[in-house]
Amino acid sequence: MADKTTPTANGMTLDEAHHIIAAARRKALEIGVPMNIAVVDTGNNLTAFARMDGAWLGSIDIAMSKAKTARFFDMTTADLGAASQSGESLFGINTSNDGNIIIFGGGIPLVRGGVVVGAVGVSGGAVPQDIEVAEAGAESFNNPQ
Amino acid sequence: MADKTTPTANGMTLDEAHHIIAAARRKALEIGVPMNIAVVDTGNNLTAFARMDGAWLGSIDIAMSKAKTARFFDMTTADLGAASQSGESLFGINTSNDGNIIIFGGGIPLVRGGVVVGAVGVSGGAVPQDIEVAEAGAESFNNPQ
Amino acid sequence: MADKTTPTANGMTLDEAHHIIAAARRKALEIGVPMNIAVVDTGNNLTAFARMDGAWLGSIDIAMSKAKTARFFDMTTADLGAASQSGESLFGINTSNDGNIIIFGGGIPLVRGGVVVGAVGVSGGAVPQDIEVAEAGAESFNNPQ
Amino acid sequence: MADKTTPTANGMTLDEAHHIIAAARRKALEIGVPMNIAVVDTGNNLTAFARMDGAWLGSIDIAMSKAKTARFFDMTTADLGAASQSGESLFGINTSNDGNIIIFGGGIPLVRGGVVVGAVGVSGGAVPQDIEVAEAGAESFNNPQ
């Protein structure tokens, strides 16, 4: 299904975003943790968002910010976080961009043909769980079947 | 598919929200205008969001605020807007709630058993188009098949 | 009951604020409209707030802003509103003070000994209903029994 | 007393919130520290708030944010804080959600039948005092008499 009626390129279709969310949701159900899942496009604008039943309300914003952060700097939020601890080079970066920066894992860039065209952000569990679910979403984009 | 692993009631499941978005999207495709579509739950927290390919970027925020406004006051944003013109009783209401208030059509409460349990907000076209698409979404919730 | 352990004067005790809220709530129950009710003190800081069961979520912020507005300018929000319509002298004032200004009725200053020592704000119904309930609250402060 | 004139479920009545605030206030008077006390409902919307006479003005916002934080993540703010120190998994989380996150003690979820239906937040003293007063409020909800 193609929604586009005007030729605005954004590097990510809604169907692709929904495909990513569906893959992440399957992983979240598999590990038994309800998650918030967000997908942004090349321009770092929200393409799709889903809050699974019972997922933390405070993670709605965090999932979106994780996706935005991953596209802001074209790296995972886990990698950005490592450089943002007290004493490290980017300490304090999380108050930039109106505070829409998350410096722990769960945000992953989406790459097509070697180019970052968006990002996925997941929040709702322990950080390793968020990362596992975000990776399932990113994997489905990088290797569609 | 039930995501809920902890019994937190929010009056709206993700599947219901996706069903509403799908119905609204079909109507948007039918009239040929790509839309942003948002669904909030009883507590006015975002449940799901979708931006159709090519939809206005400035309408991401407006769609979310239309949904929130409709739940904030349990009425359509069109009805709220009629009372918010200069000289009318609610003139100026749109600067309340951190400006997350939209006073033109496209936000509609979602009702179940006589109780407002959420709202849908649509933005991306002329206001009558936004209303038409939001009504298609709300209709699918009120009369699921 | 006196809570104060340090002599910080604010012109309004919590017991007085709760007395105002109780009086307003009785009036709201009498007219059958659930309301949000806020009381601020001399320094325009929130002293007490109550949301009656089923009251509009969007009126939480509006009740607080009505109280603040009434103390900001030591006049009712209805009076401020009359001067803030398009073409009138204060048109646009509602975007000042971070948007925490409401320019329709329901906010009323609280006066003791000819001095404004706080304000009450009510939101949840049609504007005349909000005013009626706010007046019941203000009356109970001005004429305690 | 039931305020509800429209059947909107929010998981917490105003009377319940006032009962929690009264219990917290008694504990605050007992330890001699005036407190700000906030209660939110299932949807994380403010239900009631009280500032005791002489309580810190800067703690009005903190009490509300503590309550919100406890409901945002369905855990105490003390527990969230432990995971949010530099080098820990959630470091930086406090700039999310528009900064309405507090990562020290005094916010506690309110549970009914195993379901989180709101939260209480207390601020005005040393953190152990805030926690003691919040626990008195939460205890009164979990074990009403």
What does this structure look like?
- The structure is a homotetramer.
- Chain A is of the alpha+beta class and about 140 residues long.
- Chain A has helices at about 15-30, 60-75, 75-80, 125-140, and strands spanning about 35-40, 45-50, 105-110, 115-125.
- In chain A, strands 2-1-4-3 form a four-stranded antiparallel sheet.
- In chain A, strand 3 and strand 4 form a beta hairpin.
- The interface of B and C includes residues 44 and 97 of B.
Question: Which key terms come to mind for this protein?
Answer:
homotetramer, 145 residues, alpha+beta, Beta-Lactamase, 4-stranded antiparallel beta sheet, 4 helices
Query: How many extended strands of chain A?
Result: 4
Question: What's the arrangement of strands in the largest beta sheet of chain A?
Answer: 2-1-4-3
Q: Please indicate the count of domains of chain A.
A: 1
Average pLDDT metric of chain A? 93
| Low-confidence region ranges of chain A | none
Largest sheet properties of chain A: 4 strands, antiparallel
Task: State the CATH class of chain A.
Answer: Alpha Beta
Most extensive contact: A-B, 33 and 33 residues
Q: CATH H level of chain A: which superfamily?
A: Haem-degrading domain
- The coarse silhouette of chain A is globular
Please tally the helical runs of chain A, counting DSSP H or I stretches of 4 or more residues: 4
Please state the CA-atom Rg of chain A, rounded to the nearest Å. 14 Å
Q: Helicity level of chain A, as a percent range? A: 25-40%
**Quaternary state of the chains:** homotetramer
H and E order of chain A: HEEHHEEH
Instruction: Give the end-to-end Cα distance of chain A, rounded to a whole number of Å.
Output: 17 Å
Strand fraction band of chain A? Answer: 15-25%
Return the structural class of chain A.
alpha+beta
